[in-house]
Backbone:
């Protein structure tokens, strides 16, 4: 009887190990592009405004995210948010979205979210110049770092879900001029935003993008919560920007999610 029980327990434990391995593999694959995700992304890109498509296609970090299966899930799982207010208590203004809770020094090392397969540390950025791991946290939900990783993390904590097609906000202005017309474009688009909205923008005069979370809306502008805006080291901050400020800083909205 004992021998039979021992064999039974061995089989059960082995089966549980297999289930754990499968779950781990499934969880890992969630954070990687798949043929289905790529096909859905290409279909989406072919149907939107060419200028909007150009903005998205030039944002490699966002493209990687949008080529994941879960992004196109029509019935996404929403977990109860663990935070009742913004900013998150764990990341107040003045803190850092980094592993050492200090300003990241790896940005000058051309750190990236695209960590090579042979690198052990998958939870942080990778410096392409020195071939070493950096201090920027990778938010695994979207495989993003710095401002995007932070905004995506806050979005999940506050809203209970990652960014995805089911939560995308339509009508994002892909081209915003630095004048009254641009200010009005921001004001009009803000009507579609919510507290907790995650907004991805093109930085005027630069080749890079920025992400922020909306914490407040008013008749004169937005209060935003973000990382890596005031200094290039993943510092977290809160700021109130007028429509004029927004038009001056950002010349297009790449995408946004509620």
Residues:
């Amino acid at each position: 009887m004992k021998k039979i029980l021992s064999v039974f327990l061995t089989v059960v434990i082995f089966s549980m190990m297999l289930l754990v391995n499968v779950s781990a593999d499934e969880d890992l694959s969630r954070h990687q592009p798949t043929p289905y995700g790529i096909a859905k992304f290409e279909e989406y890109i072919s149907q939107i405004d060419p200028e909007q498509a150009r903005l998205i296609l030039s944002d490699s970090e966002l493209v990687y995210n949008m080529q994941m299966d879960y992004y196109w899930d029509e019935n996404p799982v929403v977990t109860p948010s663990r935070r009742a207010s913004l900013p998150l208590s764990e990341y107040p203004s003045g803190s850092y979205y980094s592993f050492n809770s200090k300003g990241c020094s790896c940005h000058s090392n051309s750190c990236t979210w695209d960590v090579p397969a042979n690198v052990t540390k998958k939870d942080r950025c990778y410096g392409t110049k020195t071939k070493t791991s950096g201090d920027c946290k990778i938010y695994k939900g979207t495989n993003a770092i710095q401002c995007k990783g932070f905004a995506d993390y806050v979005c999940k904590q506050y809203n209970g879900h990652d960014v995805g097609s089911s939560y995308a906000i339509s009508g994002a202005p892909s081209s915003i001029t630095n004048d009254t017309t641009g200010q009005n474009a921001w004001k009009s688009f803000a009507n579609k935003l919510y507290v907790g909205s995650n907004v991805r923008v093109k930085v005027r005069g630069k080749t890079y993008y920025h992400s922020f979370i909306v914490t407040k809306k008013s008749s004169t502008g937005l209060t935003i919560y973000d990382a890596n805006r005031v200094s290039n080291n993943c510092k977290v901050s809160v700021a109130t920007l007028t429509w004029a400020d927004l038009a001056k800083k950002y010349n297009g909205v790449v995408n946004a999610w509620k």
User: Anything to note?
Assistant: The longest helix spans residues 2-29. The chain has a mean pLDDT of 86. Helices lie at 2-29, 35-47, 50-57, 60-66, 146-159, 180-190, 243-249.
